[in-house]
Amino acid sequence: MLRQNGNNLCNQADCSPEIQLLFLNNVKGRKVVVWGTGELSGYVSPFIEKYLPISFYTSRDAVGAFRGIRVTTKEASGLSPELHYVVVLANPAFVEIRQDLEDLGFVQYYSYFDLGSMQEWHNPWLSDLGVMSAKPLKYRSCAQIEYAELVFQGPIDKNVKCIQPCCWIGLDPLPAVAFGGTPEDTLKSFMLLRREIIAENIRFSLLGDDISDEERKFTKICTKCPSFIESGWPAQGYRPIAAVHFAMYPSPCQCKCTYCFVRNDEKHGSLQFEESIHSKCYDRLFDTVGYALDNKMISEDVCWQFAAGEITIHPYKEKFLDLIKNQAAGFVTNAFLFDESIAAHLSSNPRSSLCFSIDCGTPETWRKIKGVDNFDAVVANIAKYLQVCQRPEQVQLKYIILPGMNDNSMDYHGIVEILKKLQIARLGITPDHHSCFDNNPSVQDDLCKATGYLAALLRKNGIAPGLGHTQKQLERIEYYANEALAAD
Ligand code: SF4
Ligand code: SF4
Description:
Blueprint: E1 2-3, H1 17-27, E2 31-35, H2 39-49, E3 54-58, E4 64-66, E5 69-72, H3 74-77, E6 84-90, H4 94-103, E7 113-114, H5 124-129, E8 137-141, H6 143-146, E9 149-155, E10 163-164, H7 183-207, E11 229-233, E12 241-249, H8 261-264, H9 275-294, E13 298-306, H10 317-324, E14 329-333, H11 340-348, E15 353-357, H12 363-370, H13 375-388, E16 395-401, H14 409-422, E17 426-431, H15 433-436, H16 441-460, E18 464-467, H17 471-487
Helix pairs in contact: 1-7, 7-9, 16-17
One iron/sulfur cluster binds next to helix 6.
């Protein structure tokens, strides 16, 4: 049942994927009947019809048709809980209608949308996006979408879609929006995209095997992503943004990683920042984030992430640090430099972290992958960051497996020695983006083998491998890790 409270008409209802879900989940093959032919019905009915046909309307006083659909009185409707699923789009007569329905045997109901309890949410943003929560629902989605992450990724100086709900790069097409005319336009279209993605995920889950993943409009690519999993998602329509990622360019970087998406993006890529050209683009970025902060769209315990070029030499580094104040932040760095401001932030905020992709264990491989001969200097910088951190876990090292380049015994033993020297107890292992989404079984198997061997060596030395792989990949990795340990 949905109800209207006073004059606050819930035109917000059509914004919510959860409202769809609640209908779709409970209808169980029955005919959908809408009780109410008032203004509220006019708003919400088209939304219901996107997913399920309305069989007829019921109203105490109306007969004839509403929106071209038959209207009957309660008496003439023949309503029964076995045959009908009734959506009440009601006015203050809600309580009496519920009594009428109970008299007809409808003993189970849900009040999905109660504007009375929405008053505290009456910020225009929240009421536009907001809706009541329901029980956790099982469907395929990912944490970045569900917990509302806002990712600026890609060229912000071109009129392309560079704002997306997750930070996977190089995937095309990934759901994304472009900057709008104003910060409000930008954020509205981003929030709409997120809602539509969740709605699609719910719809596909409810429709089961009858509908192929290929038909997904927004999340076709997500079905190949290890983060896209079935889980009991909290099913809340509105959430403040839990994380903001800055991974946009032009953003300068001194490194030349072979796998660098920006360097390899021939169409749009550029790490070259020119104040006279690009300051306007950054103004737009800061205005958008500022608007979101002013309108309380960003959670108070937000986590900020910086993975744009190299943060230590970013021309707006200080402005970014001012923006985040002392909130938790993750800084991705190439560690070419030891940066005092970032060190101070890490030192004063134990929730903040520094992420460094080391990707090798020898200076030779470092030079091959990174294009610069400064391996010892970057390892020394990492040691300095560790000294200022409150917790060693604040410094996170990652090893991107690049088959044929860094999956050899020299590098594997080298990285273990470095980790032991730095007293780092965990190493994240990830595939490079291309291999990750490559469905070729032999590519996947090579990747699992390389990961399994490294994981085994780490475990043998008391270091935990951090594996963010799919269940299927994890099983193969485990198999190869055990094989390596047994052969040792
Ligand atoms: S690509 Fe993966 S992380 Fe990104 S939105 Fe899709 S499922 Fe989520
Ligand atoms: S450190 Fe990052 S931005 Fe710089 S080249 Fe490597 S991947 Fe690209």
